[in-house]
């Protein structure tokens, strides 16, 4: 919150509306799940609120068939409190989300379009402050072009005074009880086609105020919007703090019939011994990411003395490290891992490993490298006593 702002409320919830189909963009994938600089639009939008200190919880309204698309976008979002299936209209989707938030009774709720991934922390601050001061407020921009109102034939009816016009954005901010009641009343009255939550409040007879929006808080609606957005984020233009980290891990062989390497189960005459599934590749990659962001090592996040990690799948470790990067507003630019062993052969499994690592870390597969080498029969790997892995991670973070 800015200096001199009203006292922050006890709780701020965010409802992200992601149930639309985005038909004006085209394609088979709804626009909120399209990749933008290597991450989905929705993942970027959720990250805005995940890292904002005043936001306590996030609920997302998604399409009825979108759970498989939604799940990767929500990785690392610790504030996610619920996912609801949206309705036929935006208004119905918002009501479904508000109903899900109702048991928690937040003081303030911000309603935000999934397709606006560029809202700043300052805009979120202003939204919360406006809700505290007014109970109902929306961000708006002054209109710079002259606006004409026309009839069905295209004839100009009048020219509104430009100084009194605002183009409205999200997040729209409300006292929770006020907006919840307004939506319930509109639904009971059979009103279904109001295009934003401010309009619902106006219909219910409540005063609505406008606070300053942001020109950069664009809504991705057309293909041209996506082209502009790509220019804004690629190549990771806003993430100028480039970090690198390295990781190393080793596990000895024990009795068994398979090994886990880079998230892939490979039949073998021995297994690897470890507290978890002993996946040396994913362990090394996890440490590389943690090293790049200066956040300890795998042992400090998942202590081997803790019984809950006994036999754990190592994809959880790598996903956790990737989530820490996302929560800091960053992105993983590249992951590279080398397996050191005499056997099993890595080549036949290389592409499956790359795909699995990319899936866990939520990055494109062309940002993953997997290599293997022997040690020419030297050392413990040469004597086939175990397997080692070394990894590097390149991470980009916003400058603090």
UniProtKB/TrEMBL annotation:
Q: What residues does the record give for site: Positions MEP for the nucleophilic attack?
A: 162, 219
Q: Which CDD domains match?
A: CDP-ME_synthetase (cd02516), MECDP_synthase (cd00554)
Q: Where is this site: Transition state stabilizer?
A: 24, 31, 275, 374
From the Swiss-Prot or TrEMBL record, give the protein name: Bifunctional enzyme IspD/IspF
Q: What does it do?
A: Bifunctional enzyme that catalyzes the formation of 4-diphosphocytidyl-2-C-methyl-D-erythritol from CTP and 2-C-methyl-D-erythritol 4-phosphate (MEP) (IspD), and catalyzes the conversion of 4-diphosphocytidyl-2-C-methyl-D-erythritol 2-phosphate (CDP-ME2P) to 2-C-methyl-D-erythritol 2,4-cyclodiphosphate (ME-CPP) with a corresponding release of cytidine 5-monophosphate (CMP) (IspF).
Question: Keyword Transferase, does the record have it?
Answer: yes
Q: What is its EC number?
A: 2.7.7.60, 4.6.1.12
Residue positions binding 4-CDP-2-C-methyl-D-erythritol 2-phosphate: 249-251, 275-276, 297-299, 373-376, 380, 383
What cofactor does this protein call for?
a divalent metal cation
Query: What keywords are assigned to this protein?
Result: Isoprene biosynthesis, Lyase, Metal-binding, Multifunctional enzyme, Nucleotidyltransferase, Transferase
- Give the top-rank taxon of the lineage listed in the UniProt record for this protein: Bacteria
Question: Which segments carry the region annotation 2-C-methyl-D-erythritol 4-phosphate cytidylyltransferase?
Answer: 1-242
* Matching InterPro entries: IspD, IspD/F, IspD/TarI, MECDP_synthase, MECDP_synthase_CS, MECDP_synthase_sf, Nucleotide-diphossugar_trans
Q: Which Pfam families match?
A: IspD, YgbB
Annotated GO molecular function terms are: 2-C-methyl-D-erythritol 2,4-cyclodiphosphate synthase activity; 2-C-methyl-D-erythritol 4-phosphate cytidylyltransferase activity
The pathway noted for it is:
Isoprenoid biosynthesis; isopentenyl diphosphate biosynthesis via DXP pathway; isopentenyl diphosphate from 1-deoxy-D-xylulose 5-phosphate: step 4/6; Isoprenoid biosynthesis; isopentenyl diphosphate biosynthesis via DXP pathway; isopentenyl diphosphate from 1-deoxy-D-xylulose 5-phosphate: step 2/6
Record organism: Labrys monachus
**Which residue range or ranges hold the 2-C-methyl-D-erythritol 2,4-cyclodiphosphate synthase domain?**
243-395
């Amino acid at each position: 919150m800015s200096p001199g702002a009203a006292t922050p409320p006890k709780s701020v919830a965010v409802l992200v509306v992601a149930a639309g189909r985005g038909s004006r963009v085209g394609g088979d994938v709804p626009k909120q799940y399209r990749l933008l600089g290597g991450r989905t639009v929705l993942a970027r939008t959720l990250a805005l609120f995940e890292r904002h200190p005043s936001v306590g919880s996030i609920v997302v309204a998604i399409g009825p068939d979108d759970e498989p698309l939604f799940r990767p976008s929500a990785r690392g979002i610790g504030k996610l409190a619920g996912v609801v299936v949206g309705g036929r209209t935006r208004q119905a989707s918002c009501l479904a989300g508000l109903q899900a938030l109702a048991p928690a009774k937040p003081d303030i709720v911000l309603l935000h379009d999934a397709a606006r991934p560029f809202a700043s922390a300052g805009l979120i601050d202003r939204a919360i402050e406006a809700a505290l001061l007014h109970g109902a407020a929306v961000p708006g921009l002054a209109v710079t072009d002259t606006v004409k109102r026309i009839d069905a034939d295209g004839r100009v009816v009048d020219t509104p005074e430009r100084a009194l016009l605002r183009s409205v954005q999200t997040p729209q901010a409300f006292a929770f009880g006020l907006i919840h009641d307004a939506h319930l009343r509109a639904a009971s009255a059979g009103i279904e086609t109001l295009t934003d939550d401010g309009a619902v409040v106006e219909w219910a007879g409540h005063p609505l105020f406008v606070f300053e929006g942001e020109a950069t808080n664009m809504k991705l609606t057309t293909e041209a919007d996506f082209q502009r957005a790509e220019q804004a984020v690629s190549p990771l233009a806003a993430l100028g703090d480039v970090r690198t980290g390295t990781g190393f891990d080793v596990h000895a062989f024990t009795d068994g019939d398979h090994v886990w390497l880079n998230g892939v189960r490979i039949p073998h005459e021995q297994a690897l011994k470890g507290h978890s599934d002993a996946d040396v590749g994913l362990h090394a990659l996890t440490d590389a990411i943690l090293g790049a962001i200066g956040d300890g090592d795998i042992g400090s996040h998942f202590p081997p003395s803790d019984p809950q990690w006994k036999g754990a799948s190592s994809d959880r470790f790598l996903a956790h490290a990737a989530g820490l990067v996302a929560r800091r507003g960053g992105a993983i630019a590249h992951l590279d891992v080398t397996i050191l062993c005499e056997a099993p052969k890595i080549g036949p499994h290389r592409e499956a490993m790359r795909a699995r690592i990319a899936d866990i870390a939520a990055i494109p597969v062309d940002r993953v490298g997997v290599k293997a080498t022997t040690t020419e029969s030297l050392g413990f790997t040469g004597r086939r006593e175990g397997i080692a892995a070394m990894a590097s991670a390149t991470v980009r973070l916003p400058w603090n």
